[in-house]
Specification:
18% strand, alpha/beta, six-stranded mixed sheet, globular, five-stranded parallel sheet, 39% helix, 314 residues, 12 helices
């Protein structure tokens, strides 16, 4: 598909439900909100399926678009969802009805009737920006969530996935008059006291491997319970390990519940994060990927380290 094809499919739809992924980040929420507003500007009826795991960080961008209880869509679209297993539980009814999936993950599984996937895009928001421009004018109400989508997936434009095109799109969105200073302060330069204490604990207990090139940080369930941490306190903690000087493979292990661990891997050129996580049942991007495994923190740690060794030695 081309961008124009995606726009044509969307233009022909009405009563559209937009799906986001579990543990929603700024990209999936920002894309869904921007697309929903664009469809409404075209006179369409469109909503987001409520995501029960959304945090207070991203709730303001999605809340105006939640589908009312009992509302029935005619068409279903997903944004920034790589595989159907990443849909929230309340999306089960729609898994087989997704007509169009828009995504930028190289591990995308092409589960929808039609898919547009651009793995070169730094964020799914870059794709939605191009699609929406084919549909309607980008107003401040559309530009703001798109900026959130792109800025969060690039770490406020500092990750290696950031391109010249990323900056061009961001500049065009800023020209709409949105308050980017507020977004950047809220998302990137404000941390709760609980989060700072969690970061201190993670740093104090980090482990180094492979001649200090691989760093592992852990978030045991007991730590969250002890600090009474919310999801908003925990989100994006996976970026902390990647800050350790001299490392090029950062592994963050978060115990979701007893016996289940979420893996986040951030890497430099030496280690392909997607290949590491693919060995563990997950996927993502070359420099940022994830997976979820059953086992104790120590068992999962050993499995991830083994996967890294296999990928580097391949």
């Amino acid at each position: 598909m081309r961008i124009s094809d995606v726009a044509a499919r969307l233009r022909a739809m009405d009563r559209v439900l937009i799906l986001t992924h579990v543990r929603p980040d700024g990209d999936t929420i920002g894309c869904a909100a921007a697309l929903c507003q664009a469809l409404r500007d075209l006179g369409k009826e469109a909503y987001l399926l409520y995501n029960p795991e959304i945090t207070s960080t991203y709730l303001p961008y999605a809340q105006p678009y939640w589908a009312p209880e009992g509302w029935q869509p005619e068409h279903v679209v997903s944004t920034d969802v790589a595989v159907p297993d990443l849909l929230p539980a309340n999306a089960a009814l729609y898994r087989g009805r997704i007509e169009l999936a828009i995504d930028h993950h190289p591990s995308h599984s092409y589960f929808a009737a039609e898919s547009y996937v651009d793995a070169s895009a730094a964020a799914c928001g870059e794709i939605l920006s191009a699609v929406i421009r084919e549909l309607t004018d980008i107003t401040p109400a559309i530009a703001l969530p798109l900026y959130v989508a792109i800025s969060t997936d690039t770490g406020c434009f500092v990750y290696s996935n950031t391109t010249a095109n990323t900056h061009r799109i961001a500049a065009e969105l800023m020209a709409c008059g949105i308050d980017t200073a507020f977004v950047n302060k809220t998302l990137f330069r404000t941390k709760s006291k609980v989060r700072l204490r969690m970061e201190a604990h993670m740093a104090a207990h980090m482990e180094l491997y492979d001649n200090d090139r691989v760093v592992v940080m852990q978030i045991p369930l007991s730590l969250r319970e002890e600090m009474h941490a919310t999801e908003a306190d925990i989100e994006e903690l996976s970026s902390l390990a990647a800050l350790v000087e001299g490392t090029d493979c950062a592994i963050t292990l978060r115990e979701l519940r007893v016996g289940t661990v979420k893996i986040s891997v951030r890497t430099g050129p030496r280690v392909n994060a997607t290949e590491v996580c693919a060995r563990l049942g997950g996927g993502g991007h070359r420099a940022a990927a994830g997976a979820t495994m059953n086992g104790t923190l120590d068992e999962v740690k050993q499995a991830v380290l083994q996967a890294v060794q296999e990928v580097v030695g391949a």
